[in-house]
């Protein structure tokens, strides 16, 4: 057992006066530089400085394999100015296992994991592991800003790393994913890779959305350094990496944040504010500036120290409203008697402001399902300050339409057109995410109407419509395989489906959609500009036809999109187009190589000087069944 002796040098306080002031005020931009466990030297002695915020604790000790887990060996010194406790322990080096023993106000001691732990023990012990802070990641100037700009193509592949591929039926590790996932995403043409939460989470079935270690990559998949190497490999391959981030709630595990110092420290004491009814979790107390500091610092940590390029913020809607999923009488109104959560709103503005100042080019994306105004407007104008917002209204309406028998689609024509009524109110991401293929909802494939051929045709049409519609794109893993079964986090994707050429055809289409989307500015450069989109014909309800044109920044950048969402081939269809001359099919979802029936208009089509749909020139086409065509003027190629 290691203990201090009378002859041991007295170390300087680990928390300096400035640190104490900043922590007390909740203004420490990088609290993870001082709180947690940090190998260092004090008074010429090598060891580790431990520090933890526990303002109401009666006593705190650090225990670990260096003192036989004896809470008497290393009691921490209280810093009442900021509610923290600290101690330098000589001889403790990187790799040591530790926890904090917290003596609560009720006189009960409990072992707690370090909220700022950088590494955790694999398996069920949940011990923290001492490690050096990762060095800041240096990226080429402008790399993030260019890839994440409003005018740039953004096609996101969303992945749950534990169930993408499982070598020999086991969990993958980061080296395996570096060798397999990164090149796969590149080969498929995606621009961004989004990881469902990789923060430490004891309950695997939460998919990472109930994290206990916000600062530690999950030990399931390997070391923190291996994760850094994975992100670096993705960058080297030209990908941006987004991380799902969960500041809305945390699990009630007794050894984690819940009642950390014996009181409701990180959460609200009143369950009407502090208990999340949907997930049986606890809600952060955003009115405490120390709690906000913990979370804001965490957002910056992943970007600075692991090179993450953006955060997709989970469950934002549940943060914005005090009555979210609560019955009358089960929630506390705000100071004005309303339902808006002013404290959470201020927190979201704060984190987006700090990231904008400290990590320019990095983005935040809100999963927000309500009509809350200004989600992607800047904080100084009253907005929340996110860069992008998931368009869940588009998702709901579009999937509902594609589930319908074509007999009934004319009565639901507005399901497809309505999204353009609000397309420019926010900066949107069109998301077909993991949430749509779990909990009995079935796969995207099985949401589609029809027999097997028709389901695949509908799916191909859905993807082509999505890629042509204003808004960035997100597909959950397995969508590109036309996976038949619902996603199961305990098994890998059904890669064997690719032995079937029809499923392989859907995968090929997704790749081609990505490549064409990226190569044609008309499909992405003016997503937030009303001049980048114009309907050609949105009134043909009887035949379930939709046609529109996307425009790029220059006159020659045009893409005409025609959707025939019935299972009937339509020959001799005349459509007005913005300019005369020859046109060509850039993409046709009904080609045989995609598993379609092969209805095509050939290599080139010549306009006729015949007015149609308000244009002076028009094309005469054959429209494939349940098919989408992308056409461009040949002069633009």
Notes on the structure:
The chain has 3 domains: 17-129, Sandwich (Immunoglobulin-like); 143-242 and 286-328 and 347-523, Glycosidases (TIM Barrel); 531-636, Sandwich (Immunoglobulin-like). Helix content is 22%, strand content 22%. The chain has 13 helices and 28 strands. α3 (174-187) packs parallel to α4 (224-236) and α12 (452-468) runs parallel beside α13. The longest helix has 19 residues, at 501-519. The protein is elongated.
Rounded average pLDDT: 96
Supply the number of helical segments.
Answer: 13
Query: How many structural domains can be distinguished in the coordinates?
Result: 3
N- and C-termini, Cα separation: 74 Å
- Helix amount: 10-25%
Instruction: Using the coordinates above, name the CATH class of the largest domain.
Output: Alpha Beta
What structural class do the secondary elements suggest?
alpha/beta
CATH fold group of the largest domain: TIM Barrel
CATH architecture of the largest domain: Alpha-Beta Barrel
- Report the sheet with the most strands, covering strand number, pairing sense and barrel closure: 8 strands, parallel, barrel
- Cα Rg: 27 Å
Number of strands: 28
Strand fraction equals 15-25%
CATH superfamily of the largest domain: Glycosidases
Weakly predicted, low-confidence segments = 1-8
């Amino acid at each position: 057992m290691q203990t201090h002796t009378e002859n041991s040098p007295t170390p300087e306080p680990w928390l300096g006066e400035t640190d104490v002031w900043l922590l007390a005020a909740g203004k420490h931009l990088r609290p993870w530089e001082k709180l947690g466990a940090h190998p260092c030297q004090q008074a010429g002695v090598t060891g580790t400085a431990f520090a933890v915020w526990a303002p109401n604790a009666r006593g705190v000790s650090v225990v670990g394999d260096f003192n036989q887990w004896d809470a008497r060996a290393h009691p921490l010194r209280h810093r009442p100015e900021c509610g923290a406790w600290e101690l330098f322990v000589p001889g403790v080096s990187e790799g040591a296992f530790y926890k904090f023993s917290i003596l609560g106000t009720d006189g009960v001691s409990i072992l707690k994991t370090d909220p700022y732990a950088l590494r955790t023990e694999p398996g069920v012990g949940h011990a923290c592991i001492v490690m050096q802070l990762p060095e800041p990641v240096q990226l080429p100037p402008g790399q993030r800003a260019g890839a994440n700009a409003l005018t740039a193509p953004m096609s996101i592949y969303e992945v749950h790393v534990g169930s993408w591929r499982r070598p020999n039926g086991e969990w993958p590790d980061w080296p395996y994913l570096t060798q397999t996932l990164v090149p796969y995403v590149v080969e498929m043409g995606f621009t961004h890779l989004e990881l469902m939460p990789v923060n430490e989470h004891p309950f695997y079935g939460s998919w990472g959305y109930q994290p206990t270690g916000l600062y530690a990559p999950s030990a399931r998949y390997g070391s923190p350094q291996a994760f850094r190497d994975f992100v670096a490999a993705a960058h080297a391959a030209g990908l941006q990496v987004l991380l799902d981030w969960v500041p809305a709630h945390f699990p009630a595990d007794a050894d984690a944040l819940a009642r950390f110092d014996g009181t409701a420290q990180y959460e609200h004491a009143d369950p009407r504010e502090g208990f999340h009814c949907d997930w049986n979790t606890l809600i952060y107390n955003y009115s405490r500036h120390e709690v906000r500091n913990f979370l804001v610092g965490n957002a910056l940590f992943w970007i600075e120290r692991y090179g993450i390029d953006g955060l997709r913020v989970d469950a934002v809607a549940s943060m914005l409203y005090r009555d979210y999923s609560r019955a009358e009488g089960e929630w506390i109104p705000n100071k004005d008697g309303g339902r808006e959560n002013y404290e959470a709103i201020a927190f979201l503005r704060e984190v987006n402001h700090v990231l904008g100042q400290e990590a320019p080019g990095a983005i935040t994306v809100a999963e927000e399902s309500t009509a809350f105004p200004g989600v992607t407007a800047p904080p100084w104008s009253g907005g929340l300050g996110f860069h992008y917002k998931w368009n869940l209204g588009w998702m709901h309406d579009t999937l509902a339409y594609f589930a319908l028998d074509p007999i009934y689609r004319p009565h639901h024509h507005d399901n497809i057109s309505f999204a353009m009524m609000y397309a420019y109110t926010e900066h949107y991401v069109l998301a077909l995410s993991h949430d749509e293929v779990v909990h009995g909802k079935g796969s995207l494939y099985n949401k589609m109407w029809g027999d097997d051929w028709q389901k695949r045709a509908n799916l191909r049409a859905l993807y082509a419509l999505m890629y042509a519609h204003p808004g960035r794109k997100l597909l959950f893993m397995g969508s590109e395989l036309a996976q038949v079964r619902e996603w199961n986090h305990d098994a890998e994707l059904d890669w064997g489906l690719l032995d079937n050429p029809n499923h392989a055809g859907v995968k090929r289409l997704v790749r081609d959609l990505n490549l064409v989307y990226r190569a044609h500015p008309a499909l992405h450069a003016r997503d937030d500009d009303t001049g980048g989109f114009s309907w050609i014909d949105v009134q043909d309800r009887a035949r379930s036809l939709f046609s529109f044109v996307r425009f790029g920044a220059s006159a020659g950048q045009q893409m005409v999109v025609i959707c025939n969402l019935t299972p009937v081939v339509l020959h001799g269809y005349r459509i007005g187009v913005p300019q005369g001359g020859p046109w060509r099919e850039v993409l046709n979802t009904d080609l045989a190589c995609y598993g379609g029936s092969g209805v095509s208009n050939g290599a080139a089509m010549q306009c006729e000087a015949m007015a149609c749909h308000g244009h002076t020139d028009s094309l005469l086409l054959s429209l494939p069944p349940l098919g989408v065509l992308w056409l461009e003027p040949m002069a633009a190629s």
